[in-house]
Specification:
Length: 454
């Protein structure tokens, strides 16, 4: 007797970070079944650092109905101040305010745990779709699908596996195992910098701004402050309750080693020690901020691009496919866009092939990579060039701030070309004086005069 049971396309997401959780929302809103498997025992991570969403990242959250929740748990960034090695303010800009005028959405800073919790709580029936304590050990191929196998002996069956599982992606390792030798590197990323991330309560002494960082505080809400030295930089981001910081140190030689984020850091760390006596507020030094830290951790800043983002029925998104330096805050935004692009390709495929074969999936995955790879390569290069320039803090001329600011002018046109979900109505999309370029098919047809012409 023939099996008349209708097959349902099901995506298995590996990784419950912000990109994986946004991907769950995108699949939910487009009607694609999914299960998300996270190796930790809870979705909100106890992380030591913040996360930044630019207008294109906020736009994607708005499209899936989360803009009010997003604004409730984040802080605006509107100003940036650069401080030289002797404590003098050398430049102040309000470029973040310009970004909001251009695109209708601002730049916002998040606590990573709060963002993850919000993304979890706003899913429909998260308990039916989210699995924790699931360490992936294998992906088995079967007729018309895959089976994800976990260390606890449990299994999940689906149509595809999406690796949203970070720079040391287990999914990517399994792709490497199955693919021809040489297609996937064991470690595709290299680190040229080390950084320590952290957060601390906002100091209550002297919280006002001045032209001299040595006499008064620069830690007012909505302000990003950057201190520059040769081979090093310190970034501070203040909300109304706390200060997030990232301290960078250029490595003497690039490193290619599998060494992840570690909370085992102290004041002797090479990325922290040079900044301890730096005055950041009236009668407050960075040493005081460090002593009151709520959390901190360090890592070598791996960066790079994976050559192939898919193999078989497995595909990568976010840091598993492309890793950017954090100084411009584009990593999560690029991951969100990549997730939306992948969902768009799957939606178009499933519209015609509800149970696609491997060839159809391969074509959809390739189209997704083709749409995103060049954009992410550009963002990656911009972040690296900027950090190299910013860490020219002393010496003749100091950091080339005006040149770097001019180069940042490339970001706004790239933001305007960002991806959104094709299959999700978006009547409340915000816009500024730089209109969004990306159009879904129906909108493109209307803009062309009412439909496709043969």
């Amino acid at each position: 007797m023939a099996d008349n049971k209708k097959k349902t396309f099901r995506a298995i997401i590996i990784g419950g970070g912000p990109v994986g959780m946004y991907l769950a929302h995108a699949l939910q809103e487009t009607g694609i079944d999914y299960v998300l498997c996270e190796k930790r025992d809870a979705i909100p991570p106890a992380t030591a650092f913040g996360l930044f969403l630019w207008p294109h990242g906020l736009r994607l959250l708005h499209q899936v109905g989360l803009i009010d929740q997003t604004e409730a748990i984040s802080s605006l960034l509107t100003k940036i101040t650069h401080v030289g090695p002797t404590g003098e303010v050398v430049r102040e800009y309000s470029d973040f305010g310009f970004i909001q005028l251009a695109h209708g959405y601002p730049v916002r800073m998040f606590d990573r745990a709060s963002l993850s919790r919000m993304l979890y709580d706003t899913l429909r029936e998260p308990g039916a779709h989210i699995r924790t304590s699931k360490q992936l050990v294998d992906v088995e191929r079967r007729a018309g699908g895959v089976t994800a196998v976990f260390a606890d002996g449990t299994r999940e069956e689906g149509s595809i596996v999406i690796g949203a599982d970070g720079i040391w992606s287990p999914v990517r390792n399994l792709m490497r195992r199955d693919a021809p030798e040489g297609l996937f590197e064991e470690n595709p990323y290299v680190a040229g910098y080390r950084a320590v991330f952290g957060r601390a309560p906002l100091p209550r002494q002297g919280i006002y701004s001045s032209s001299s960082a040595s006499s008064a505080s620069l830690l007012e809400p909505e302000r990003q402050v950057e201190f520059h030295r040769d081979g090093a930089m310190l970034q501070l981001f203040a909300s109304r309750r706390e200060v997030h910081f990232i301290s960078y140190r250029k490595l003497a030689e690039p490193r290619r080693e599998r060494k992840g984020f570690s909370t085992d850091v102290d004041a002797t760390d090479e990325a922290i020690a040079p900044w301890l006596d730096t005055r950041i507020a009236e009668d407050v030094t960075f040493r005081d901020l460090w002593r009151t830290r709520a959390a901190a951790g360090g890592a070598n800043l791996d960066e790079g691009m994976v050559r192939m983002w898919n193999w078989g029925r497995m595909v990568l998104v976010g840091d598993a496919a492309h890793k950017l330096l954090p100084n411009q805050g584009m990593g999560a935004n690029g991951g969100f866009e990549g997730a939306a692009s992948l969902v768009n390709q799957l939606t178009a495929l499933l519209r015609h092939e509800p149970d696609p074969d491997a060839a159809g999936l391969r074509q959809a995955f390739a189209a997704y990579q083709a749409e995103r790879q060049g954009v992410m390569a550009a963002y990656q290069r911009m972040a690296r060039d900027e950090l190299d320039g910013w860490t020219r803090g002393g010496g003749e001329g100091g950091p080339p701030l005006d040149a770097l600011r001019a180069a940042d002018g490339l970001i706004s046109p790239m933001v305007a070309c960002s991806v959104r979900l094709d299959a999700v109505p978006f009547p409340d999309e915000r816009a500024g004086f730089s209109p969004w370029v990306y159009k879904v098919p129906a909108e493109a047809a209307r803009a062309a005069g009412g439909g496709a012409k043969l």
